[in-house]
Amino acid sequence: MNSTDNTRGDAMHPAACPDPSSPIPGAKNAPRRPKRCRPAIYIALGILLVGGICAAIIAPYFLTGTASAAVIKIPRQATAANITDTLSKYFGTDFAGRATTAFTKLVKAPAERYGAYDIPEGTSPVKAARILARGSQTQLTLTINGVRQFMPFADRIAAKFDFSGDDLRQALSDPELMQQYGLTTEQAPSLFLNDSYYLYWTDSPRTLIEKVGANYNRVWNDTRRAKADSLGLTPAQVMTIASIVDEETNQISEKGRIGRLYINRLNAHMRLQADPTVRYALQDFTIKRVSGANLQAPGPYNTYRVYGLPPGPIRTTSVATIDAILDSKPSDDLYMCAREDFSGFHNFASDYATHMANARRYQQALDSLGISLQQ
């Protein structure tokens, strides 16, 4: 029993199971057995090294971001070099190179993404490439509000698009295109009601006109056309009257009455004698008070010299003004004069004698302030 017990005790004693890598007692220069963990360490270090190199190369594609937002425009027949140049202008050459590299991996023909794209602040090169590759253009907003001299203004409209002002003017001067909306080429600015329009940089002049014209047709629905017809007017004629009214006053409460006054003068075969048409004929909107010399301005837009309405509107107008005229109450008004209290409102009259009395009071108010007519 004791012998057995001692044997078991020796077998369980740590000294009875030496470390395999330890030298055998009494042996000279006995070789050590290699540790199995060393190859694993080398492999791990290699993986870390390769991963670090890859991360250093790839991280800028994902982790760097734009310092500001910009709209990037890819032109027709664009090449990868064109895209790099465009991106470089806004975000620098490093960002541009990475974004273009990622973009060309996604899209083989850059010209297929002709358009304008919004790149928000903080966008990484890879995300920018995806925005361009998706081809989902950024909408732009065209806002029209009281535009005078519309044909020259066409250059400012064109600046938002990939066409020229001459391209737009040429489309607006197409009689067949304008006839689709019941307008002459002189009445073409009537299409552009005061409003905001949502379009794309790549839209052509005709596409722009179609979208603006669709809004014009929505405004001039059957109800409004019937109201215009009851006044003996076409939609285009109402638009021209509305443009004059907008130049006469900013008081919305008076717009309908002033519009009705001009309709009364038309029906009475009187000249409109509207001061804003004189300014338009002279192409000088800085004139505060129209003088006798101004009234001699040549051309079909001077309603002191010609009968009837001008050939087209003298500015863009609003739906509010159109409705004010269409819904105006019948009246006998034939004359109006600014009030002597300089409130921006007018005194109206149905006869010339009353009108002259109103005019004298206004002139006296001007004289008291030392203001005289422009000579």
Helix-and-strand structural type? mainly alpha
Residue stretches low in confidence (pLDDT < 50, at least 5 long) are 1-17
Assign an overall shape. Answer: elongated
Give the percentage of residues in beta strands: 5-15%
- The pLDDT mean sits at 87
Model description:
- This protein is mainly α and 375 residues long.
- Among the domains are: 64-134; 143-219, no CATH class; 222-329, no CATH class.
- It is 49% helix and 7% strand.
- It is built from 15 helices and six strands.
- It has helices at residues 2-12, 37-63, 80-91, 93-106, 125-134, 150-158, 165-172, 175-179, 205-219, 222-230, 235-248, 252-267, 275-282, 319-326, 352-368, and strands at residues 70-74, 115-119, 140-144, 195-199, 335-338, 346-349.
- The strands form three sheets. It has a two-stranded antiparallel sheet with strand order 1-2. Strands 3-4 form a two-stranded antiparallel ribbon. The chain has a two-stranded antiparallel sheet with strand order 5-6.
- Strand 5 (335-338) and strand 6 form a beta hairpin.
- Helix 4 packs across helix 5 (125-134).
- It is elongated, with a radius of gyration of 40 Å.
Question: What is the topology?
Answer:
Layout: H1 2-12, H2 37-63, E1 70-74, H3 80-91, H4 93-106, E2 115-119, H5 125-134, E3 140-144, H6 150-158, H7 165-172, H8 175-179, E4 195-199, H9 205-219, H10 222-230, H11 235-248, H12 252-267, H13 275-282, H14 319-326, E5 335-338, E6 346-349, H15 352-368
Antiparallel strand pairs: 1-2, 3-4, 5-6
Helix pairs in contact: 3-4, 4-5, 6-7, 11-12, 11-14, 12-14
